[in-house]
Amino acid sequence: MPERKAVVVHSGGMDSTTLLMETIRGGMYAEVFSFGVNYGQKHARRELDCAARICADLQIGRVVADLRAAAPCFMGSALTGLGAVPEGHYKHESMKATAVNNRNMVILSLAAAFAQSVGAMAVYYGAHAGDHAIYPDCRKEFYSSCAATIGYATDDAVRLFAPYGAWNKERIVRQGELLRVPWSITWSCYNGRERHCGKCGTCVERREAFRLAGVVDPTEYEA
Amino acid sequence: MPERKAVVVHSGGMDSTTLLMETIRGGMYAEVFSFGVNYGQKHARRELDCAARICADLQIGRVVADLRAAAPCFMGSALTGLGAVPEGHYKHESMKATAVNNRNMVILSLAAAFAQSVGAMAVYYGAHAGDHAIYPDCRKEFYSSCAATIGYATDDAVRLFAPYGAWNKERIVRQGELLRVPWSITWSCYNGRERHCGKCGTCVERREAFRLAGVVDPTEYEA
Question: What is the rounded CA–CA span in Å between residue B186 and residue A127?
């Protein structure tokens, strides 16, 4: 029997890093790969650097699919260059500006392709229940359908799992704390400056999750 | 009401060029875009040149998403560099070497993203019934599921259509002939040499489709 391998969609943020470490520690797989995408996000450099550092510490393989030459697909988002990143809470309507056209389907389909290319049987995706009504491609209906599509496309060679689908971010922080996720080198902020801005939707959510989980937040924020 | 726009997944081959011309001539859309992908296929230069020329003749916009910097996702296919392109009929087992990991899901998800970025409501995909049991991502189960996934991912802003799903290639040639598809500047061959090789699976199928449809084949083959 061949060695079991898995691919984790890994941005370098809190959720996907927790999922990555859980997949490694779970012991089901002989090899676990981190898979990321550069779709021209403003915070690409910081995010990708953090992910690379985490993978180096964990001594696992990391592949980044560079989609910057597919930029016309991802126009029109505050994350890829259109205007400023909005500040405030994710639940706010203004956060819709941070949606990126069909981003998660593109990422998951590439992750499934990468999984096939390395003979991995599973793709893990860190979507969670707090993943926002404003992002249709974070909802359960979406990733359940996506899992079916990947099954058809690969003759069931690759399966998609979203084990945090019913969790909120607070629970992920508690889980990550048990796994000793190196929070200080995870990256959330949509503004890719030297430090987390503390004001954009994902920074607000990051702070809130640490607070609700009762876990010390080691992040240095600008504000 | 905004002007209706559509995106056609267009490789420059016979099927997608027929579909492109039918979508334009159908008159349902004020603007039709041709969308292609460079995933590192050996025949990219010839295929993309043909598609560009067809679009120039039709005076429509063409966008190519360049995925060559995502090459690790597409390793392991005869189309992207692994060994020689097999010769013979598509129905033959050896043709499995030409499958590209999850290629069509990647292409369709990018096409849907591009559709969102230009405000198009529809993506057209030229899969047909002769699209081969060896390619799971050409089957109806796949693209029906993919259509559902795109619907979820985009809040039904983009719909996927595969109007040739029940047709064979012979019927597409007859349809293309009615639409006056410029066959001589369409490209099929998996070997991207100056002329069609005449021997690879897609060349064999191309010749057969012209013959069965009773349409003169203007292609210059090597053999």
Answer: 42
